[in-house]
Design a protein that fits this description.
This protein has about 140 residues and is mainly alpha-helical. Helix content is about 70%, strand content about 0%.
């Protein structure tokens, strides 16, 4: 289950990925992944495996949200979008030859953080308007 602390780890990783992407002109998994997970592990005093787990869980949740939206489309449009997204993912990975051979992705891949923020923004605003808040120091775990 995701906690506020884990969301901080995920946001930190996303920020580092953006900085590296801008600095290096794209995403290079062979260089960026190890660096991001190492820096996050050090900053949050957790293992790189734990950072990897957290990052993958949030990334999967964002991908699931995007797929649910795509599944609502007519099948012909759905197939076209899925093929384009797969192509864009391959072209975005600068360690692979697709970028050099076929050029950049047709559109920038959405940040998992942006997908999650957009999805839950309305829910959070609705809860806030009802007077609910998250207590300071809340860890997401309720003690018995």
């Amino acid at each position: 289950m995701a906690t506020i602390e884990e969301s901080s780890v995920f946001e930190y990783c996303e920020k580092l990925y953006r900085e590296l992407d801008e600095r290096d002109g794209g995403y290079y998994p062979s260089r960026h992944d190890k660096y991001v997970f190492s820096k996050a592990a050090s900053s949050f005093s957790i293992t790189e495996d734990e950072v990897n787990r957290i990052f993958n869980e949030y990334s999967k949740q964002a991908a699931d949200i995007e797929m649910e939206k795509i599944k609502r489309l007519p099948i012909a449009i759905r197939k076209k979008i899925i093929l384009q997204k797969a192509s864009d993912v391959l072209k975005n990975n600068r360690d692979l030859p697709f970028f050099r051979l076929e050029g950049p992705p047709s559109e920038e891949l959405p940040s998992a953080l942006d997908v999650l923020s957009d999805e839950y923004k309305v829910l959070v605003e609705s809860i806030a308007q009802s007077g609910w808040t998250i207590p300071i120091g809340y860890s997401g775990v309720v003690e018995p």
